[in-house]
């Protein structure tokens, strides 16, 4: 069982994250709507470092990915 104090600490950190990056939780909520991420959806990610270097990748969502996402949603 998770430590209640650690959960409280994590909740505080999450609130700080949301305050620092208000667009990200809204984006994730929109992406989590039914029918947005389906099999064969392509997710793209890009990282840009302060000195300008970039890393990019993408992945195509599979049926097993969707199953894992559903299991994660059920944890709430």
What does this structure look like?
The protein is of the alpha+beta class and 76 residues long. The protein has two domains: 31 residues, no CATH class; 41 residues, no CATH class. Helices cover 51% and strands 18% of the residues. It contains three helices and two strands, in the order H-H-E-E-H. A two-stranded antiparallel sheet has the order 1-2. The longest helix is centred in the first third of the chain and has 17 residues. The radius of gyration is 16 Å and the shape is extended. The model has no long low-confidence stretch (mean pLDDT 94).
Short characterization:
The protein has 76 residues and is α+β, with helices and mostly antiparallel strands. The chain is built from 3 helices and 2 strands; from the N terminus they run ααββα.
Question: Which properties best describe this structure?
Answer:
two-stranded antiparallel ribbon, 18% strand, 51% helix, 76 residues, 2 domains, alpha+beta
Could you report the average pLDDT, rounded to the nearest whole number?
94
Main beta sheet: strand number and arrangement?
A: 2 strands, antiparallel
End-to-end gap? 14 Å
Give the number of helices.
Answer: 3
Number of strands: 2
Structural domains: how many: 2
Widest sheet, order of strands:
1-2
Low-confidence stretches: none
Query: How would you describe the shape?
Result: extended
The percent range for strand residues is 15-25%
Helix-strand makeup class: alpha+beta
What's the SSE pattern? HHEEH
Helical coverage, percent range: 40-55%
Radius of gyration from the alpha-carbon trace, in angstroms: 16 Å
């Amino acid at each position: 069982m998770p430590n209640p104090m650690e959960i409280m600490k994590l909740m505080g950190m999450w609130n700080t994250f949301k305050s620092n990056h208000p667009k990200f939780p809204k984006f994730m909520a929109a992406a989590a709507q039914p029918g947005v991420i389906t099999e064969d959806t392509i997710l793209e990610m890009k990282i840009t470092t302060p000195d300008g270097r970039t890393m990019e990748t993408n992945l195509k969502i599979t049926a097993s990915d969707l199953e894992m996402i559903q299991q994660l949603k059920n944890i709430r």
